[in-house]
């Protein structure tokens, strides 16, 4: 049975959750991070809706199976290139990008999803006071993202290091690429910004 339709993120879902905070995880893989955030929301009686965006079919099908097996009703999937979703008028309260594909070789840097246009697009879909969170273990990507943010005339505040959103993210950070980074002893770089 094709289970995907009932978990697809679209305008209907967005409208149904208008009183909820919407958390978008870009390149969510098989959804480990939003699953643990969803559990956190239930434990803390929060009104959140989670959207995982992913293009890798095997990961999408694992995520669907898991949502269905666990009877979750607050996780939805956008199974296409995130740029299509960002061409629509959705607004998000939190956007996470965890370990975006680094494209290590210099000549492949142009394939990195986070570029000037993408950063501007993310901020235009971030609600007032919303958070943009990017985590990577690739130093050159991290430095490049910081440069883009500073040169694109974006209005934001850095999130204070004691803010609960930081511990909330790191306490639930359980993704495949985070585990790989830890296993390899890589340094983790993070960017926590709040839209103003
Ligand atoms: C390095 S993996 C990280 C996966 C997961 N966030 C983690 O931390 O384990 C990057 C993911 O981004 C997905 N991805 C790449 N380009 C994308 C795009 N344009 N839209 C949505 N997902 C994308 C890839 O399929 C891949 O699963």
Please characterize this protein's 3D structure.
The mean pLDDT is 96. The chain has one domain (4-195): Vaccinia Virus protein VP39 (Rossmann fold), CATH 3.40.50. It has a seven-stranded mixed β-sheet with strand order 3-2-1-4-5-7-6, with helices on both faces. The protein has helices spanning 4-7, 11-16, 32-43, 57-69, 82-85, 116-124, 139-151, 164-171, 176-183; strands at residues 21-26, 48-53, 75-78, 92-98, 126-136, 156-158, 189-195. The chain contains nine helices and seven strands, in the order H-H-E-H-E-H-E-H-E-H-E-H-E-H-H-E. The protein is of the alpha/beta class. The protein binds S-adenosylmethionine. S-adenosylmethionine binds next to helix 9.
Uncertain runs: none
CATH fold description: Rossmann fold
> For the report, how would you describe the main beta sheet?
7 strands, mixed
How much helical structure, as a percent, in the residues?
Answer: 25-40%
Radius of gyration equals 16 Å
Structural class from helices and strands?
alpha/beta
User: What's the CATH superfamily, by name?
Assistant: Vaccinia Virus protein VP39
Q: Which ligands appear in the coordinates?
A: S-adenosylmethionine
**How many alpha or pi helices?**
9
Strand content: 15-25%
CATH class membership:
Alpha Beta
The helix-strand sequence is HHEHEHEHEHEHEHHE
Number of strand segments: 7
Counting structural domains, the number is 1
Measured distance between first and last alpha carbons:
45 Å
CATH architecture: 3-Layer(aba) Sandwich
Oligomerization state of this entry? Answer: single chain
Cross-sheet strand order for the largest sheet:
3-2-1-4-5-7-6
Global shape = globular
Output mean pLDDT: 96
Catalytic activity: guanosine(46) in tRNA + S-adenosyl-L-methionine = N(7)-methylguanosine(46) in tRNA + S-adenosyl-L-homocysteine
InterPro entries: SAM-dependent_MTases_sf, tRNA_(Gua-N-7)_MeTrfase_Trmb
Pfam family, one: Methyltransf_4
Protein name: tRNA (guanine(46)-N(7))-methyltransferase
């Amino acid at each position: 049975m094709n289970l995907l339709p009932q978990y697809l993120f679209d305008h209907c879902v967005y409208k149904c959750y208008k009183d909820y905070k919407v958390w978008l995880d870009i390149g969510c893989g098989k959804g480990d991070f939003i699953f643990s955030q969803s559990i956190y929301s239930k434990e803390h009686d929060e009104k959140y809706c989670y959207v995982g965006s992913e293009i890798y079919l095997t990961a999408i099908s694992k995520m669907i199976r898991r949502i269905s097996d666990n009877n979750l009703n607050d996780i939805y999937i956008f199974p296409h290139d995130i740029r299509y979703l960002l061409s629509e008028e959705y607004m998000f309260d939190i956007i996470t990008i965890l370990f975006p594909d680094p494209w290590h070789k210099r000549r492949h840097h142009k394939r990195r999803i986070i570029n000037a246009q993408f950063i501007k697009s993310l901020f235009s879909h971030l609600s007032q006071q919303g958070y943009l969170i990017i985590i990577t273990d690739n130093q050159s990507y991290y430095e490049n993202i910081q440069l883009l943010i500073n040169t694109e005339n974006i209005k934001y505040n850095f999130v204070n290091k004691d803010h609960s959103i930081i511990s909330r993210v790191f306490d639930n950070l359980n993704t495949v690429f985070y585990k790989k980074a830890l296993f390899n002893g890589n340094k983790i770089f993070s960017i926590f910004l709040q839209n103003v």
